[in-house]
Amino acid sequence: MDKMTQLLKLLENTDTIEINDFRMDFDELEIQIMPAVQRMVQQVAQKQAEVAKEVLPSMEPFAPPVHNWPGEVAEVQLGAGSRKSVFLGGQTALYRFEEPQPNAPVVTFDVFDIPMPGLPKPIREHFDDVMEHPGEWAKKAVKDYGANMITIHLIGTGPKVMDKTPRQAAQDIEEVLQAVKVPLVIGASGDPVKDPIVLEAAAQAAEGERCLLASANLDLDYKKVAKAAVDYNHAVLSWAITDVNMQKTLNKYLMKEGLTQNDIVMDPTTCALGYGIEFSIDVITRTRLAALKGDTDLQMPMSSGTTNAWGSREAWMKKDEWGPTAYRGPIWEIITGLTMMLCGVDIFMMLHPSSVKMLKEIGNTFTRDYLTTDVPDITNWITELE
Amino acid sequence: MQVTAMEIYRLLPKTNCAKCGEASCMAFATKLSDKETDLELCTQLAANEMEELENLLAPAVREITIGKGDKTILVGGDEVLYRYELTYYNPTPIIIDVNDDMDEEALNERVKIIEESEFERTGETLVLDGIALRNSSGNADKFAETASKLKSSKLPLVLCSLDPTAMKAALENVGDERPLIYAATENNFDEMAELALEYDCPLAIFVPNDLEKMKEISNILRSKGVRDMVLDPGTYVNDGIGDTLDNFIMIRRLAIEERDEDFRFPIMGIPALTWLYEDDEVQGGIKEATIAATLMNKYADLLIIHGTNIWELIPVLTLRQSVFTDPRKPQAVDAGLYEFGELADDSPVVLTTNFALTYYTVEGDLKSGKSNCYLLVLDTEGRAVDVSLAGGQLTGESVAELIKDSGIEDKVKTRTLIIPGLAAPMSGEIEDDSGWEVVVGPRDSSGMPDFFHKLQEKQEAK
């Protein structure tokens, strides 16, 4: 017998080989294991596998995968003076099973300083009778539709709209302040030159009421907006365009002007469902994760201009094969807002009463503890469903 | 995350037998790491080695096949918790329910609706993916009989019955098509596991709101040799939606961050449960779409829906398309000059951006309106009109450059550019930098055909 065969003979009834004081010197090494040895190794492995199958794999008991987050989201108070207060943010965790959030998501209804004939019909039909007077409009949103807050858009101040003066804007603010007791978001027209002046006048008119001035961004005199907020005790909406770094920079600049984390709400930009919502998902997710991981420049609550959803053609365009716009519009607004809410957004600017209702139903569960809600028995859904 | 070739190589036989078609085990490992070959090709591995390698190579959430041949859907397969980290895989199939109390006519009609529902979006046709048959009658024969009728459908099946006898009867008829068996519960998992193994079908586990018990059952089923499972931790559509979300998220976190073997399976949600509490078609439809969107946002890998109104399905299908877009691929088309219809040297010239969605929307409107025009597509790094306006990609300068480089000035003798309504604030700057006259077009490109019509009337009046 040659040496290899001898060795194999010896190995026939062997399960393991132990080699002691073994040394090899080589330049290049290629090991060829004989088929017989291989087969033996496989047989052993098979044996082990069979043993493993008979015994139940030991099971780690279930434990909720809770993280310890080093950072937390700042809490921002809106509404003071003659207003009721609303609080945003304050989360110490990403999800409810880790730690329920202290404040439920908030919805603020859009109201405009001019009648808006361009608003989609499903919205106009709720507010047609009050659109001439922003105060009445706001009142209806609060009284009939349970708005937590009102956003008054001073669209009429736009140089190409009605070119209302800052003084007129201040009067509109006073009208809305008198009409409702909820906190206000004050929006301008989107004109980078005029907006800061309009917001300053509005901030003065609402001194001490702790409104949210919308908005400061890198394209306008954000220092003026920040100063108006500091001088008259308001908070500022910090708006960046789906860009975490831009958001960080702007927040830093605003804090240099004397605002604190508790005076800033971020708007990372809401792209509507089907129109880039995935960009907003990514940016908002990253922003909230950064906050919880401890980035102090991003630890503010977030806002969503959910109303953008109504710009999507699926929401408004008449097209019989898509079904009635009366249903499509509200769903588009709900799903846009809801998707943002699930990524961490705290305050939603919305238009349609039933969208608001649906969003709040889900948002309100965020403040409750895991497994503390009475749930129905669903075990027989297969037969119970119509 | 991707497993390296070295990690795989350590577990291969290192015999370089070449039976897999690769010259060496190292080459095979490299291909495995890139998901370019199949582990089954290695003939030298013992069962436990094979299993170890399979585990290593499998995505954090196992990918499960439902159906066979042309009637196949893949579920699961995800590697990350957030899409920006990589991408999500296998867009959530939307399965519509039917039941075994339906008469033949009603059944056929509903199957037809499920098969034919579609919605065109950015050059993609969005469709529904499967049929869930509910054993609403509680009768095994009826269940089996209806299942047989569904064999002629072109969509894969989910069989819903908690009664093992009924399940067996149905599987005898359609078990060769690899339907998803719904479901094993704490009361029937022994029998359901046997059926899953006997017919080689994937098996859903239904344990509402009790992850501890779900883990136990998943563990037992795994030890019985069931490999392909889908987890249903219960869908609560009212106040309980908070618990449902928590359950979904916990399962996914345990799968991805802890590689908990008992939870490394796709999750299914059942927005159809909405209809246990809603009678109104409209309110119910809005609510069901909302629940579907909620669960899809947080890790549902498969959804069973009841409503088939297209206005309810469109937003859900759109969300799916958005969420499952690969963030690593820019959503842009090539910039430059595009031509539509019959052109002359006085044809209108229109501007848009190269964001894929923007481009395809405009393209669709120009085509359906049978418009004749040149379309200049500006490189905005894949941004929409309003976003690129704010972001500084759509400027007078960039448009002027596009006009020059595209050669449009040799094709038309006019010097008039129609810009999107949303780009109106930039009109002055574009005129200054390009020397062209700017006309502000509609805010939405659906208004283009009408706009061209009026433009033509104006010209003729002149």
Q: Mean pLDDT across all residues of chain A, rounded?
A: 90
Query: Structural class of the secondary structure composition of chain A?
Result: alpha/beta
Low-confidence stretches of chain A: 51-55
Give the assembly state of these chains.
heterodimer
Question: Fraction of residues of chain B in helices?
Answer: 40-55%
- CA-based gyration radius of chain A: 31 Å
Mass-distribution shape of chain B: globular
What's the tally of helices of chain B?
17
Strand tally of chain A, please?
A: 10
Explain how this protein is built:
The complex is a heterodimer of chains A (386) and B (462). Chain A is of the alpha/beta class and 386 residues long. Chain A is built from 13 helices and ten strands. In chain A, helix 6 runs parallel beside helix 7 and helix 9 runs parallel beside helix 11. The longest helix of chain A has 20 residues. Chain B is an alpha/beta fold and 462 residues long. Chain B is built from 17 helices and 17 strands. The longest helix of chain B has 17 residues. The radius of gyration of chain B is 27 Å and the shape is globular. Chains A and B meet through helix 2, helix 9, helix 11, helix 12 and helix 13 of A and helix 3, helix 8, helix 9, helix 10 and helix 11 of B.
Q: Could you give a quick summary of the protein structure above?
A:
The complex is a heterodimer of chains A (386) and B (462). By secondary structure, chain A is α/β, with parallel strands linked by helices.
Secondary-structure topology with pairs:
The complex is a heterodimer of chains A (386) and B (462).
Chain A: H1 3-11, H2 35-54, E1 75-78, E2 86-89, E3 106-112, H3 121-127, H4 134-145, E4 149-153, H5 166-179, E5 184-187, H6 195-205, E6 212-216, H7 222-232, E7 235-239, H8 244-256, E8 264-267, H9 277-293, E9 303-304, H10 313-316, H11 325-343, E10 347-350, H12 353-363, H13 381-384
Parallel strand pairs in A: 3-4, 3-10, 4-5, 5-6, 6-7, 7-8, 9-10
Antiparallel strand pairs in A: 1-2
Helix pairs in contact in A: 4-5, 5-6, 6-7, 9-11, 11-12
Chain B: H1 5-9, H2 25-33, H3 47-57, E1 63-68, E2 71-76, E3 94-99, H4 104-116, E4 118-121, E5 124-127, E6 130-134, H5 140-149, E7 157-160, H6 164-174, E8 180-184, H7 189-199, E9 203-206, H8 211-223, E10 229-232, H9 241-257, E11 268-269, H10 281-297, E12 302-305, H11 310-323, E13 336-340, E14 349-353, H12 356-368, E15 373-378, H13 385-391, H14 396-406, H15 408-411, E16 416-419, H16 427-434, E17 437-440, H17 448-461
Helix pairs in contact in B: 5-6, 6-7, 10-11, 14-16
